[in-house]
Amino acid sequence: MKGILKIAYKLLVNDKGKFAALLMGITFAVFLMIMMTSLFAGILHRSSATVLNVGAKIWVMDPAVNTAVNSIPMPDYVLDAVRSINGVNYAVPLYSGGALVKLRSGVYQSVTVLGLDDSSLFGRPELIEGKIDDIYAENAFVVVKDAEFPKLENPRIGTEFEINDHRGVIVGIARVTTSGLFGVPTLYTTYNRAITYIPSSRFTDAFILVDPKSNDAVPYIKQQVANLGYLALTKDEFIEKTSTFYKYKTGLGTNVLIMTVISFIVGLSISGQTFYTFILENLEKFGALKAIGAKGKELIFMILFQATFTALTGYGLGIGFASLLITIAKLRLPDYAALITYGNLGMALVMVVIIAGISSYIGVRKVLKIEPFDIFRG
User: Are the C-beta atoms of residues 299 and 368 closer than 8 Å to each other?
Assistant: First the structure.
């Protein structure tokens, strides 16, 4: 069997042009699949940026909320009711809203403002400059240093700006786990300052952040919140709800799916046609092997080896090129959201295996029909 595989390998790489064409088809298909699915994964990851950065274990919200960006304020009594539920360690409000900031240059810039509970500052980001206690100072805000930071003209501690005719001062610069999706800078301040500075509706609690006493208390808390007419989700459930919204309730998921299928068809077409041509050109060699005693299953094994070797090589090259391009793009474009995940790699591998299987089937059918007599007669 070792000799058969050696012959199969030499037959495969002997014609460098055909071998390169086989690799190119699969590599290009994998490259497209990884690029599209990685972009989608990155978008889904960034869509849950607020949930990931705040880090609360349970989020209480209006049932109509689909993402952390589009919140629906809840009445004040909901916070008191949640705090009274057995199993709740503590519960605090979170303000989330948009505002228009006037920078010192006179330029206006939209921002997202997160108002943290005044007493606990639960959900505060990690500061890289400044002290968190300074957030209690007059007009104080903390700015997040992420991909959108330059849109605020790279502020420093002490930088002043205007927000809805109120003076604002940067007292801290923070970093977060994940940048936002929509290209809008983020400011943190206290809850009371947020609702004072930003015009809002009668209710101001965008979310209620709950810390349970134990994991066993989570189902009971969720049930009690449901009895109030509201929805309580764990962090992972909220992330999944956000991802489901973008996958199935927007055109984003459909477009990415179509492009992934197209890349699969392109790879299958190129590799299938090239592999079939390769089999035809080497038909005499397979016939000669059959004439000197090679069994049908050995010839099948040769073709499977050739298809598998080509598919896995193309898979590796496709991932390598995609990873390189994504890395370069992130260095040049901080807003680029692509993210390679194990799911993306697994899906691409499955599709490559399917391409290899179909290509092998085409070759196997042709080789098994060949008769040594026909080869030598020719």
Answer: yes
Nearest to 177 by CA among 130, 121, 126: 126
Q: How many CB atoms lie within 10 A of CB 63?
A: 9
Question: If you compute the radius of gyration of the chain from its CA atoms, what whole number of angstroms results?
Answer: 29
pLDDT of 166-175, one tens digit each?
Answer: 999 999 999 9
The answer to whether 64 touches 351, Cβ cutoff 8 Å, is no
Helix axes 342-369 and 283-291, enclosed angle (nearest 10): 60
- Backbone φ and ψ for 366, nearest 5 degrees, come out as -70, -40
The number of CA neighbours under 13 Å toward the Cβ of 215 is 1
Q: Give yes or no for a contact between 191 and 127, defined as CB atoms under 8 angstroms apart.
A: no
User: In Å, what is the CA distance from 93 to each residue of 58, 186, 189, 197, 224?
Assistant: 12, 18, 13, 17, 18
Residue given tokens 């809008």 in the structure block: 184
Q: Count CB atoms within 10 A of the CB of residue 240.
A: 14
**Whole-model pTM over 0.70:** yes
What are the pLDDT digits (tens) for 278-301? 777 776 777 777 777 767 777 778
Residue 22: closest CA among 221, 261, 215, 271: 271
Residue 65 Cα distances to 85, 206, 238, 357, angstroms: 22, 10, 10, 44
Sort 126 into a burial class: Cβ within 10 Å, 0-12 / 13-18 / 19+: exposed
